[in-house]
Design brief:
The protein has 181 residues and is an all-alpha fold. The chain folds into two domains: 5-89, Rna Polymerase Sigma Factor, Chain: A (Orthogonal Bundle); 104-110 and 121-180, Arc Repressor Mutant, subunit A (Orthogonal Bundle). The protein has helices at residues 5-17, 21-42, 47-63, 74-102, 106-109, 129-139, 145-152, 156-180. Helix 3 crosses helix 4 (74-102) and helix 7 crosses helix 8 (156-180). The termini are far apart.
């Protein structure tokens, strides 16, 4: 009777922890495709992003090999690392969205009209109601992303993305207006 794949993985991992580079190659060849498939699904088919995350997963796997505990299956541990790397990327992107969102909003946020007028500020035309509400809440009322998310019934990540897309839309609209001026 041959050993189960999980037992083989565990044996390979123990050899890898003691410095056997060929054990890593075996683990990689056995599981790289599954990890890549998982990341491809998580990134909605973005092959470039999945590939970058895939490299990060195996780098982290290598760097943390000493902390592997044999009571966990190697494949399960790899997927925990993959999920962690993926979530780290989402957090990083959220921070980038936040910093992009904060930059240059003064060009769009305040109309030079009488604020008592009921008309929509021209600079926010073309945005959906949710986008307009989120941009106004963030930049005119200085509300946090979590406050906006709670009020709109959305996740904080989706509010960050919504604001980022709104700002991109406003920037592209401003670029068109500048070209026509």
């Amino acid at each position: 009777m041959s050993p189960r794949p999980a037992d083989q993985d565990q044996e390979l991992m123990l050899r890898y922890q003691s410095g056997d580079a060929s054990a890593f190659e075996s683990i990689y060849s056995r599981h790289a495709g599954r990890v890549y498939g998982y990341l491809l699904k998580k990134t909605n088919g973005d092959r470039e992003q999945a590939s970058e995350l895939h490299q990060a997963v195996f780098l982290k796997f290598h760097q943390s090999r000493a902390s592997y505990r044999s009571e966990y299956p190697v494949l399960q541990w790899l997927f925990v690392i993959a999920r962690s790397v993926f979530l780290d990327q989402i957090r990083k992107n959220s921070r980038e969205v936040d910093s992009v969102g904060d930059e240059g909003i003064e060009n769009f946020a305040t109309p030079e009209e009488d604020p008592s007028q009921d008309s929509e500020p021209p600079s926010l035309e073309g945005l959906t109601n949710d986008q307009r509400e989120a941009v106004e809440a963030r930049y005119l009322r200085d509300e946090s992303f979590s406050e906006i998310a709670r009020r709109l019934g959305k996740t904080e990540v989706s509010v960050r993305k919504m604001i980022s897309r709104a700002i991109q839309k406003l920037r592209s609209k401003k670029g068109v207006a500048d070209e026509n001026a």
